[in-house]
């Protein structure tokens, strides 16, 4: 599972200075994605767990991660230089991927890997400076080899269509803002901004629990 290994002697130190408030887009995306995952999990169960979502199996973990979607997005924001716009574009990529592959479902087994892959790709497109795959893998709790593989798979599933026009971007921002109003009556505006951190600040996490992770590595990868 995606868990923070507090007792790991190789764990890097957490930041000691107080963090500035996370951008509102993280809260908005967290609520929208959690609702999407819950709905898809129900749909998958009602269908008997058949072929629904099979197109995204490459992004599936062994079991649902322990870390929540809000905390995972906060972690990516905390340790990377990607702008808040990257989170919106990452969501656009996931939505585009699902529409290109009917029957695909974003569920608890794949949402974290989809997020770290899509946000990393968005940063490469949008930001003048960005971290490499190894850094994102460390932040996201996957191996560098796995993230490289997920990136290639994601790109081919999108037919390398990473272009997002300003009109499309604004339409998704408006959609996400409307979703929040519908869900809890709160009006939130998606903002822009950047942050900076160094690799020394990253606390280690593992994509699965340590036993499962060690076992999978011995077999050449995760299930």
TrEMBL record:
Keyword Cell inner membrane belongs to the record: no
Entry protein name: Cyclin
Native organism: Ambrosia artemisiifolia
Chain segments carrying region Disordered: 1-21
Coiled coil (UniProt feature): none
InterPro entries: Cyclin-like_sf (IPR036915), Cyclin_P/U (IPR012389), Cyclin_PHO80-like (IPR013922)
GO molecular function annotation: protein kinase binding
Extent of Polar residues compositional bias: 1-10
């Amino acid at each position: 599972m995606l868990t923070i290994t507090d007792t790991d002697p190789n764990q890097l130190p957490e930041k000691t200075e107080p963090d500035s408030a996370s951008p509102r887009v993280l809260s908005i995306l967290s609520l929208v994605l959690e609702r999407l995952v819950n709905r898809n999990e129900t749909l998958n169960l009602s269908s008997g767990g058949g072929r629904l979502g099979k197109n995204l199996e490459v992004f599936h973990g062994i079991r649902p991660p322990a870390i929540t979607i809000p905390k995972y997005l906060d972690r990516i924001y905390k340790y990377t230089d990607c702008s808040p716009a990257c989170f919106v574009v990452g969501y656009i990529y996931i939505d585009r991927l699902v529409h290109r592959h009917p029957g695909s479902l974003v569920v608890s087994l794949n949402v974290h890997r989809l997020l770290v892959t899509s946000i990393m790709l968005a940063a490469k497109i949008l930001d003048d400076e960005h971290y490499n795959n190894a850094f994102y893998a460390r932040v996201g709790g996957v191996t560098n080899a796995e993230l490289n593989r997920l990136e290639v798979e994601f790109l081919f599933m999108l037919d390398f269509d990473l272009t997002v026009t300003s009109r499309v971007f604004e339409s998704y921002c408006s959609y996400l803002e409307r979703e929040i109003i519908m869900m809890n009556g709160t009006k939130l505006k998606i903002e822009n901004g950047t942050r900076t951190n160094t690799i020394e600040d990253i606390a280690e996490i593992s994509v699965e629990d340590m036993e499962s992770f060690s076992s999978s590595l011995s077999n050449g990868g995760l299930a």
